[in-house]
Write the structure tokens for this entry.
Amino acid sequence: MAGRNDPEPCREQDWGLFEITNRDGAARIGRIHTKHGVITTPMLLPVINPNLRTIEPREMWEKYGIEALITNSYVIWKHEDLRTTALSDGIHSLIDFPGAVVTDSGTFQSYVYGDVEVGPEEIVAFQRDMGVDIGTMLDVFGRPDMTREQLENSVQETADRAETSLSVAGSDMLLNGPIQGGTHADLRAESSLLMGSAESEGRGFAVHPIGGIVPLMEQQRYQELFEILLASKSNLPPDRPVHFFGCGHPMLFPMAIALGVDLFDSAAYAIFARDDRLLTPDGTVKLGDIQEWPFNSHALFGTTPQEVREMDRDERSVILAKHNLEVTQSELARCREAIRNGTIWELAEKRSHASPYLRESFLWLQEQLDDPDDGPIGDSVLRMIASTNPLRGGGEGLGDEIEYRPHILHIQALLATRWRVPGSWWDSTTGPPERVLLIEGAPPPWRTSALASVIEHLVEEPRTVVMISTPIGPIPFSIEDVSPWCHLTGPDGIWDPIFDDEEVLEALEEYGLSEVPLIRMIPIEGEEEVKAPEVRDWLDRCSVVDKLALLCAINPSESCKMTDGMTSRKSRTDRLVNVNSGGKHILSPRLTDGGISLTTHGASIANGLNTSPVPVFGSSEEDSDFPGIPRVCIIDDAVPFVGKGRNVMHGYISGADSHLIPGQPCIVVDSTGTLVAHGTPITTHLEMSYLGKGVAVKVREGAMKQDS
Ligand code: GUN
């Protein structure tokens, strides 16, 4: 068997810290630091039955790359021989696994069999004494069919045990703090608040599993499952990984991950195998029903379903368990890759068709995105949209549900709040627009397909607001190269003018333009462009001003000053490459997604324009459409490093503006507000206030570089 080295233990000061390395909205790729190495999330903890090992844990580590697994401490505690060996040799030796070992506490047994014979302190001490990496306190299982009063008791009793459990776990073992509360959103939110804030000697829980959800999954009550998740997330500290207790069907991974689940655990791979069933990302298949494999795997390669049916029962259940584990692992890899390339939502959208129950829950989720509830679920949904990078490179496949994708909702919300009619026109006049020109029937790039018509109309009437019609609504011409619009892909017909006057006016109302006289036109292909350099320069400037407003929250009247006398360098294909102000390079439009990259000089000007107090965690901020370039304030110790271009690390931040958008420009300042660097935030302001490890801002350039 290919030997994989034992894990590098993490540094003691890092035990229990969670680091976010990539994100797509609420979905995140993280790293949990343990005594037995790093656990990369989202991942599944395979459940190991200490009495019945279908796949050897050692093989899971070596062959399947599994960094952590979960077993049940109560089962070990109940069996005298296992208990003795576990206490003398340690849990890693007992199950022969070198990675991180997570244990559960017996709560699930209490749900299945009634009471358990062990007390809350005893079971935590036992887990600690076996050398477990992440143990679980004895929570009180809240079944969905319990009365509200019973569920309130389960939340309260679990919370009452939290501090003692943390104290017994001590500094040697990390602890799971489960969230209960049945299907009541308010109880889940309350449980999250209580468990998220519980601590002993400054130590809180390392992970928060969402408990009591197995009966919902068994009954395919997925909408309630996701309601619970969103309600719990609304109050959980964002530096704690979230574990979906007992969830292991690959079909549920994309949606759960898109909503912020980091860990799964399940014995499904083995239980389904014993039952001659195969897991697939869109459901379960019975071995008895198939002639060919729905999915290839290393385990089944070179066999046929008939051959496997003829195997003896034990051999069959091992080979099917291995196949199921491979399918599970590959779906998780697909999800992680989707987080990296910004398509986790599209994957969830696709997978939602796997079951009518899952589909129902996805449709419900889309309704929430469209019109969030007042309450914890709506809070989570709004937070998810705000944490989603609105821009991304690459094609955006047009589908019926595109308008619900969080990045699209985010950019549309930014347009609705931050786009303004130009303050002055190309002929230097000011005042309200005389008309709106809506370009229709033209595909992107509109700078090619529509420019001649745009210039012609602007020459004719300088006070013209130019808009482009797209299948997902009209956009200002100034952002014609911004994704997702410029990357919409689909058959040519998607660009046909399909909206009637009423629909167009309704959409223009979002921009405050519904009262302005409207001209709709389809550009003529190949039309010669009238040479009007002042109009071209004005269009370029509008594009810079509008992007600074949308993506950097800079008031258009301020960025008009910033871009006064602006000059530019253009590419051979006539695209803006460098934008200069006062002869100095201030920013470059990004050709991949239409965003902008500031230079240090541009960041310094933007910083000068932001006159609000330097952000400090915990203090309130003014509510404004244009709060200015978002800032991250770092502590003095970090200034010399970040000033020279090192990334901003969590733990060195004293404040951040709440309108910071992961993936969009921000500046880094010291406590006096002086520019230290500029870059791109990975995390949100809330995460920055909690996280203790990992990169918070990827720095593009330090402002002190020249002096060093
Ligand atoms: N396994 C599945 N559900 C639960 C739960 O609610 N609590 C604990 N401790 N383990 C579980």
Summary: Residues 104-105, 107-108, 136, 139, 141, 178, 211-212, 214, 245-246 surround guanine (CB under 6 Å). The chain has 26 helices and 29 strands.
